[in-house]
Amino acid sequence: MRVVIAKKTLSTVGGSETFARALDRELRALGHDVALVGMRPAWFRPGIADDARSTFLDVRFGRLGAAIDGLLPTTLVRDQDLRRVISGADVVHSLAREWAGALERAARAEGAAFVETPLVHPGQPFSGDTASDLARYRRADAVIALTNWEATWYRERGVSHVHVTGVGPNLVDLPEVAREPATILFVGRKEVYKGYYSLRRAARMVWRERADARFVAIGQPAWFAQIWPILAMRDPRWVDHDVVSERVKAEALARATIFAMPSDHETFGHTYLEAWLAGLPVIAGDIAPLREVVREGVDGLHVRNEPRPIADAVLALLRDPERARWMGVQGRARVLREFTWPAVAKRTEAAYAAAVANAGLRARR
How confident is the model at residue 171 (pLDDT cuts 50, 70, 90)? Predict the structure, then answer.
């Protein structure tokens, strides 16, 4: 099967970006002909690299257009350029809605099945729940959800042909380093909705009881943090890193005691899987999709994105290291059982086959 996977910002950094590259790798291992299509960025972005399987398209208005398209939910790619790169494809897979309308038009024009992984975030701006989004999901030959909760959300809105695949962890081999006794790790975009700023305020509450606790945060800063550097944390027990290599991230996970990312909005949260692979208990946001991904009291805890509940959860796990260790063991076992990339690729392959059949039925009508 010839598959085109399209993701506007096609880098090796970010959840949906690494999702695209992992699917490319695993589907090729299953014998499929896969191509990645993305946008040529207006400026350097970590993780952007040309390779034989990736095509980076220019968009309207040159670098200015690329800057706009990289920051906003616009579609400045030309339809004829998309048609050219997907010509001959059996499946066109749109990741994250960014070029979904143009990709659907191109797929229909070229006779390919159209598959979408919308990654909806209900309640968040540009979350994928508009009337036009829902109409497109209903037209799709397959819609891929990451959780059963997300699949139910689509079906309740009249979307057919919904498949659940989950995601896998993106983690290189863990180095053999000593586990630290009280290190709390955050990995993700340093945004308010991810819980980064609540975790910073929670740290001061934790230090009142555990002065030895250390917090490490890895990820791209929010845009406003670069404008107002005064927002930086001024305590040596709080360590901030920007985007780091996979090797550095793996070492941070191997050293940490607890993983905390108490998000208000997530479609799945693949970094929880990485934490579990490292044997860590996780502190996740108290929202519907994460209540499915993280099992309360089994492999993690759910808290509101507020300092006091976060601090209470951190302290509860630090006070009971055996319970924290057991949660990490349970999480690791679940990842290896349910959420490996080969398993995700097989489920995706089944969704593609169903989409091709649906597209064939539509063409014969």
Answer: confident
Q: How far is CA 140 from CA 9, 93, 109, 270, in A?
A: 22, 10, 14, 25
Tell me which residue of 163, 119, 156, 157 sits closest to 142, measured CA to CA. 163
- Helix and strand element counts for the chain (H, E): 14, 13
SS3 362: helix
Backbone angles phi, psi at 32, to 5 degrees: -90, 155
| Pairwise CA distance, residues 130 & 295, whole Å | 31
Reported as half-sphere exposure (CB side, CA atoms, 13 A), residue 27 has a value of 26
* 162, 254: one domain: no
pTM (two decimals): 0.89
* Shared-domain flag, residues 95 and 193: no
Any alpha helices (H) in the chain, and if so which ranges?
A: 15-29, 62-71, 79-86, 100-110, 131-139, 148-155, 196-209, 223-227, 246-255, 270-277, 288-293, 307-319, 321-338, 341-364
Contact 298, 283 (CB under 8 A): no
Asked whether residue 95 falls in the same domain as residue 223, the answer is no
> How many CB atoms lie under 10 A from the CB of residue 270?
24
Q: Measured between alpha carbons, how far is residue 101 from residues 95, 115, 155, 209, 356 in Å?
A: 12, 12, 20, 53, 19
Name, in order, each residue with C-beta under 8 angstroms of 273's C-beta and a sequence gap of 6 or more: 167, 168, 169, 335, 339
CA 63, CA 58: separation in Å to the nearest integer? Answer: 9
Residue keyed to tokens 């952007």: 48
pLDDT tens, 95-105?
988 899 999 99
**What confidence tens digit (pLDDT) does each residue in 265-290 have?**
999 999 999 999 999 999 999 999 99
d(CA 217, CA 252) in angstroms, rounded, equals 10
Which domain range does residue 137 map to? 2-168+340-360
Give the separation between CA 197 and CA 205, rounded to whole angstroms. Answer: 13
